[in-house]
Amino acid sequence: MTQPKIRPRARRILVVRNDKLGDFMLAWPALACLKRALPDNHIGVLVPSYTAPLARACPWIDEVLLDPGPHGNRSAQRDLLDQLRERHFDALLTLYSTPRIGWLGWRAGIPRRTAPATKWAQIFYNHRIVQRRSRSRKPEYQYNLELAEALLDKLGQPRPEPLAPPFWPLPATTRDTQRELLADTLNLDRSRPWLFLHIGSGGSAVNLSSTQYATLAAVIDRQTPSNRRPLWLLTTGPGEEDTTRKLRDALSEQGLEAIVVPPRQGLEEFALTLAAADLFIAGSTGPLHIAGCLDVPTAGFYPAKRSATPLRWQTCNAAERRLAFCPPPGSESETDMSQIDLEAAANAIIDLMSTQFSHEIHP
């Protein structure tokens, strides 16, 4: 007699990605993998308060816990440990390993603790995966996905079929709603392409200068047919308002139609606004990766150093909907963004505009 198959059991899994916004958005494919393996899996995340609004909006997450961070007071650290003990997680998946989190998971008594096999923090984990991320041979979101799949194997759960973008699926009406809100608020022409441009970087990576972005926009505008000239919608983060307004003024002086998008009510509303974009242009920063999760077409500007290349920090939208630019190999400095050929970048963006999503632009 054949033995009956043992049905995999749903688990309570805690995923930790408690650093910057872009890093967290690149964890969404891994979160989707864990949730889709068994829909009854309970997926919790440990995140800082900054990214918590998007964690609460993520369809793959059931519970959000706030990390007070390494500088949080002793009471907050104790409260977090108590929360983890009370929730009886079956497994901990740390996508970026630190000694503090490893020790926290061990003290909380989480039986299965998975992390990359890097740094001495790995001593707190009983399931370590060798990845050698420092070589940057794969996109960050693929490294995260590998860790999720390895955890599923250990838990005896099936790996789900690969999920095609978007990793942040929204109702079909969301884009229309966001476009209507912007069009009504800012009196925008719905028949023209809406190119969103975000020049801030949050200090996470070197970026094009404001002057370079102005040059890029001018070339795109000049080489686009008059009946398809884009509207430039400039988004901004905290503390970046003055720089963004100066860019708007510089674009306006060159005859481009540029508008600063008013501040949104919180990070989730800002993120949903990006669904209205026909193309999102930015450096390697959090908003670029939000757009990628939404499967909005993107054009990203990156340094060439190994830890920050376009491959390592690739957006997770569909391959045909993303462009990436960086200094050429052999340039004097791998972080010298002035080495990027803006004319070539502009032509590639125009090609994407004409071949990828021109049919999506609303009349």
From TrEMBL:
Record keyword Glycosyltransferase present: yes
GO MF: ADP-heptose-lipopolysaccharide heptosyltransferase activity
Coiled coil: none
Keywords tagged on the record: Glycosyltransferase, Transferase
GO biological process: lipopolysaccharide core region biosynthetic process
InterPro entries noted in UniProt: Glyco_trans_9, LPS_LOS_Heptosyltrfase
UniProt-listed PANTHER family: GLYCOSYLTRANSFERASE HI_0523-RELATED, TETRAACYLDISACCHARIDE 4'-KINASE-RELATED
Protein name: Uncharacterized protein
Source organism of the structure: Litchfieldella anticariensis (strain DSM 16096 / CECT 5854 / CIP 108499 / LMG 22089 / FP35) (Halomonas anticariensis)
